[in-house]
Prior knowledge:
Blueprint lengths: L1 H12 L7 E4 L3 H15 L5 E4 L2 H9 L3 E2 L8 E6 L3 E2 L5 E2 L6 H9 L1 E9 L12 E5 L4 H10 L5 E2 L10 E5 L7 H9 L4 E4 L1 E2 L5 E6 L2 E6 L6
Parallel strand pairs: 1-2, 1-4, 2-3, 4-7, 7-13
Antiparallel strand pairs: 5-6, 6-12, 8-10, 8-11, 9-10, 13-14
Bound molecules: ribulose-5-phosphate (5RP).
The site of ribulose-5-phosphate has 18 residues, from helix 2 and helix 4.
Amino acid sequence: MNDDKKAAALAAIAEVRDGMLVGLGTGSTAAFAIAGLGDRVAQGLAIRAVATSAASERLARAAGILIVDFAGVSRVDLTIDGADEIDSRLFAIKGAGGAMLREKIVAASSDRMIVIADGSKRVARIGAAKLPVEILPFAAAYVLRVLAEMGGAPVVRADYRTDQGNLVADCRFTMPDDVGTLAATLAGIPGVLGHGLFLNEVDAAYIADDGIVTRLERSGASA
Ligand SMILES: O=C(CO)[C@H](O)[C@H](O)COP(=O)(O)O
């Protein structure tokens, strides 16, 4: 599985070119991309990067990648990130690592966003993975009530805060056909700061099975 994570990551970082501002994802697959980019930087690749988590920022700095503060960045050239599930529509569930809020913001700012994954993440239709929801602590009781009433059976991650100091509740929704309505409803709950449904952000996916990397491309996206 780790070999496939690495194979997908190395295939994706081949898209990174000199001068790019690169979004660095979070998680074990993204870590392979960060390490691979570090190797290319050591060989002369000139890039800057923004990180989607404190953990990825640490990894990137240790790998010799120049990190800039995303607060001053309006556009990223290319973001490479992992996922918990991805389907052929390039709908993804993210956030097992709790970084989905920053990941979605960086993805939204990116001209191109690539998911990298081993084959275990590829599904016919997203929905089996837990769907994480980031919650402002002030709003916790109210938001948990609403999520429960929506059928999400939320479970708050114990002893856990995001990089922004917020709570995460992992939900189990029966995924409707109209997943866009669920995504919009979740985003509209006061006190919900983000969630792990990525429906519009992913332009391409590199998925590796037994060393064979397949690229899925959103129709209309440029490679
Ligand atoms: O969304 C994420 C973190 O918030 C990760 O990208 C996702 O959980 C996949 O992680 P891994 O590559 O370790 O399986």
